[in-house]
Records
---
Amino acid sequence: MAKLLDAGAQVFATKGFHAARVDDIVKAAQTSHGTFYLYFPNKEALFRALAEDVAAQMEGLSESLGPVTPDEAGKSELRAWLARFSEVYERSGAVIGAWTAAETGDSEVGRIGTELLGGFAVMLSRRISGGTPDGVEPAVAAMALVAMIERYQYYALSGMVRADRDAVLDTLAGVTHAALFGAVAGAPVRAS
């Protein structure tokens, strides 16, 4: 089963969810169709198993974010969390990339990805402490920021952008923190 899961992740990463075939997965795993069907009724079931594993890792990650406050401690907490997010994304990028492609369809796997990003946004909006600048709705800002963070990781993983990891983490933390609390010191803040 582990060989099939590893092969499936590899095939989905290279061919995409829709173009991948059971035959491709079996060849990559160096096993038989019979073995595949012993564990999975179809490629969707194998992909669902991969996606659910990644979703569980990401849910644990979302719970690890502490309070994000307007001060330097809040920015440091955000940066540390972004580093952990990046590590999980790098480890599971093949599955995340394939489920990102599947999100455009009306599939269960696509819904897993959509629900996961929505859950991240809810978590981030709950962790915002100390208020946000006037006119910034925490839930909307959190969703926009999660989309930005996830999409950047996708582009980096796919090789579309290249940058120093520390510079990226500093920049993402700075942009996210400034978007939540205002880039200008002393900006009017409203209570959460």
---
Amino acid sequence: MSSSRAIYMLPALILSVLAIVLAIVGLSRDPAPQAPETVLQVGDPASRAAGEEAPQEYRYWALSQSVEAGAELTEEQLLVMRSPQVIPGAMSADDEVVGLAVRRNVRAGEMLSVRHLEAGGPLANALLPGFRAIALPVDDVSAVGGLLEPGDMVDVLATFRAAEDQRGDPTAMLLMRDVELLAIGGLMEGADADPANRDRRGRGNTAVLAVPEKTVPRLLLAAANGSLRLSAVSARDMADMDGMTDMDERIERVAVEPGEGLVRYRELFPAPAPPPRAAPRPRGQQVEIIEGSETRSVNVRP
């Protein structure tokens, strides 16, 4: 009886052993390798194809400790700061600044800028040697319709009456030629020309000119006693001035001789010539007539 049971159980045991063997064989095999992940490097073409922009970084100099004006910069005082955007006026970490003297006090942690290394502000550094900056009141008419921009060059003209008689003959003259316009409406070249910013600064009616030092009194006198107007200079004339390296020659070109281009009102409307005088009528012979105690003269026609 027991032997018959064993015979019936034998197939089940064989199947169980076979299942265990197959399981062991399956577990002993290496798993199938997974597909490697794609890693996109910065600047990789595949990254640009996926619509991702490579991040850009800007490096600037900053101060690790305070530096007083006049002191020279050392490597120990400098550290590099990184920014994801451009910072106007900041000194790039690629610029060599070690050994340069600062013109202003710099606090610890402050970013080093151009103004720390330059003597004076942007206006002072825009002036050539021997020139001075002076502001004049202007409007849309006197400033060439309001179309002037910083960096343009202008001629300065004045109209006024003779000083000895304010009711005298009006005159006009050229005060200066090829004068550089440093700022207009309170904005220098390269500054934000947003009209809202200009209105907030409240200096939209001024023009700052770079004039030779010796012409400043003449310009002030003309502005106080006459009316000034600016005339735009052509780009070709501006190019000629840019190539002029002799400062004395440039000053003489700007500072014209007094009275140059002087025009009087009467020269525009010359007085008409006087009418020709009529020829005198011929006179006849004069005869003296005596009548008693009276004497009279009578002209007798021939």
---
Amino acid sequence: MKKLLFIFTSGIYLTACSVDPEIKPIITDEDVKEIIPEGWPTPNYNFGNNPLTKDGFILGRTLFYDPLLSADNTISCGSCHQQFAGFSHSGHDVSHGIFGLLGTRNAPAIQNLNWNPTFMHDGGVISLEMMPLAPITNPVEMNETMANVITKLSASGKYKQLFTNAFGDDIINSQRIFKAIAQFQGTLYSYNSKYDKVKSGKEGFTSQEQSGYNLFVQKCASCHKEPLFSDYDYRNNGLSINVLYNDSGRAHITGNPNDRYKFKTPSLRNIERTSPYMHDGRFTTLNQCLDHYTSGIVISPTIDPQLQTGISLTAQDKSDLIAFLKTLTDTKFLTDKRFSENN
């Protein structure tokens, strides 16, 4: 009898101490919608030809984090675009692909993509919906073909159901893959930083942040235009040539020698979290970036005219500027469960 009692009570103990399954938040239609924050310009991309739905978003998110999109099933889009790092690649100067192969450029942050007229550091992609094709087919990133991707997804019962949910039937093709990923990436809106709250009158800058903002307006805003903090133009910002890559930048696309060493102006939103910096990830801190602009400019035939003599900043100016730049960190965006892999 004692044995039976022990077994019975042990069973109760084990049941009581078992870990409850994780309760994941339910995505609703209200959670997935097009947003244009007040005062922002009209985006270049909208969902008129790609109706935004929660099922399309969920499919796109699943594809974004799925290594099946790579040749050896080890690398996903999310491998190089990590949410906590503003969807950049934390701690990696250049992208890391299949078989440990290295790319030649830093993985850029992904946010507010609907306003981008072009994509990649050199503007080599002109459509949000086509953007995933470049890393998927790049031999040192994911090194896959769309035909193989479709074959792998079509063999999955999970994906047949996800495509049916999103599109009404289980047909899997490139167009649907790209539209679904665009629904996910196109809704990665970052507009809830302290800066945004100050602009809307809900908060105020500290005196140092205000000083940094004033400096920013005077010395930086011509290229990093508010509210998106980029003009999306291509500029040679005076970096020395990285002999390891000898990257010609925009000229790689246009063939125009006047575009040599010009790269797209990156957005500064969430810049505190997107280290390392520059197209080749050569700088690891914001201080190093500012030091470059004050004393590291290399003059060349295509240098941006505004940087011919560098930017004059004192040590205090740099400290104030960095204080302001940190107000562009959008913690809500960086932790939003809707955008996470394990959702």
---
Amino acid sequence: MTSTQVGIDLGGTAAKSGRVTHAGEILAERTIDPGFARGPQAVLDTLAQLFHDLGGGDSLGIGVPGLIDRERGYVHSSPNLPGFVELDVKGELARRVGLPREQVHVENDANAAAVGELWLGAGRGERDALVVTLGTGIGGGLILGGELFAGAGMGGEVGHVVIDPRGPQCGCGKLGCVEAYASATAAKRRALAAQLPADKPGDLVLLAQRARDGHEPEARLMREIGRDLGRGLGPVLCLLDLRTFIFGGGFSGALDVLEPGIREGIEERSYGGRAPAVKLLRATLGPAAGWIGAARVAMTAREALRSRS
């Protein structure tokens, strides 16, 4: 009988989910409103029902934004998930879906997306890569030697590399993080401040298109935003000699016009003339990356557990 895993990517407005085989065949997908207004316990009830609606699986992986304890499966805090504070997501879901606790796995959402892209997406075949999510903030998932690397739990957080300690305040409370310069939120703020595009300030899709069309003010701003993003990636190159960066999230659609600036920023903040050799790839799994990666994390953990028994 084919082993299947269910993955869930729990976001602030939707839970994206699916069931996938060991070979990467997607059997079912579904997106629902988790109903956060009803409280975290009701959300967990909904997610358990979602697991069963998808047909169930041999294990369950869930990607969650925020600070998590990967070993215990606790969510310490999540700014975008009301009530998810010191919550035993692993234990609560295991009880609800009828799986042993060790067959439910909780992962940071950016890490899960990175695993998904390296398994079935743009990073297929790569051994080392940083997956950068350009959205409301900037998330990062680090893959080294084909395995997710999270350190003690917070590895890969490239969005909080400080590029100017006198810069604007980031959502984390620090000053000058790359997230405060190059996330979709920051890009919109910068476009509004510059009154770009002139006919619809702050519209990032239009901003990118006008940059592609050769409009100098828009092209210059996108290059500046890209340069600031590259300044956050340069230290990664210095530390790890990492040559592959994969960009997901809504703002990644502007990668083509951000790329010249990204390469300038990498060159500025690294050494050895390696910037031209760096691959800048756009993620291919879209909104499915998180749940696919969460399922893959659960699958890999299950295989490791079986090999030890």
